[in-house]
Amino acid sequence: xxxxxxxxxxxxxxxxxxxxxxxxxxxxxxxxxxxxxxxxxxxxxxxxxxxxxxxxxxxxxxxxxxxxxxxxxxxxxxxxxxxxxxxxxxxxxxxxxxxxxxxxxxxxxxxxx
Amino acid sequence: xxxxxxxxxxxxxxxxxxxxxxxxxxxxxxxxxxxxxxxxxxxxxxxxxxxxxxxxxxxxxxxxxxxxxxxxxxxxxxxxxxxxxxxxxxxxxxxxxxxxxxxxxxxxxxxxxxxxxxxxxxxxxxxxxxxxxxxxxxxxxxxxxxxxxxxxxxxxxxxxxxxxxxxxxxxxxxxxxxxxxxxxxxxxxxxxxxxxxxxxxxxxxxxxxxxxxxxxxxxxxxxxxxxxxxxxxxxxxxxxxxxxxxxxxxxxxxxxxxxxxxxxxxxxxxxxxxxxxxxxxxxxxxxxxxxxxxxxxxxxxxxxxxxxx
Lengths: 113, 309
Known about the structure:
Order of helices and strands of chain B: HHHHHHHHHHH
Oligomer: heterodimer
Radius of gyration of chain A: 17 Å
Low-confidence stretches of chain A: none
Structural class of chain B: mainly alpha
Mean pLDDT of chain B: 83
Shape of chain A: globular
């Protein structure tokens, strides 16, 4: 074995960093609230900690990529986030870069770059 | 909800600005509530579910730092090495020099060697603490102000190659730290002195009449020099204008100082009287030192302004 689990974990974390943001923007095209989003991402296989996700939602809102609305009808008031038009545009841009990157990596892997 | 969540939310909100607090609190409580509920629905016991959820959220201070975007450090990697270098230099130069000078004055004044050593050690410890604290504080402000300016980098923002005329951060901070020490020393000299009278009161080294006008004036000049150092750093290099201001500040300090020394108004006659006869008249040495450093510093300013063109 050439690497240990901790090393693998650290590198995976690094690799996933950018993907969480993109995943959020994609999922929140349907409005959702903090914990609900966490669950959805978890089910989809996107690993993210609650303490990373919640502050990130606010940052994205501040940047105008998400909009938010309080829903006080339910038993528990919840803040619903939705991807803004600007956010959708950004997501599309990021998505195409992501796919390009996948293609590039595959090419490199095959060795015909 | 039990007390644990309240305590967690309270701890997280502490460092969050007032106007965001209500909103973040409501959202955080809802998220914690949702997570606990999901675990309880899975058949877990409420208390342990809450504990698990809060543990997973981690240190509330770290969570708050995520919300506010504030970094969890005093001095970042950008300035750390400057900080370390300056702190080392200050500690290995200022501390022993000040300790040695103070001890020497006391020994000359005929104090008991044991108490001189004891006081020197005490002075050394408080110097170390002060130097450490003030240097760290200044660097921390530099770090913060850098973040507020924002890191929008472009080639235009590349620093000029260091030339004789450009101002380095370490240089600025060293000057500011020394000026702060000078001001502190003047204030402390009012009721602390290496020489004490028979009744145990300190005999101030400077004449008490100095506090009427001249010390406030000289301290004002020193504060102006601190402002000047900061402005000079912002400008980034010596200019003719800065060199002129530097000359003016030097003159504003040196002329009164030399005048006061020459007319024997600077030092406390009682202090001078306590010195043994073997100590020569040091007024001329100090006068010469002031004149030379003033001239060198003023000329240096113009020389570097010329080189920076």
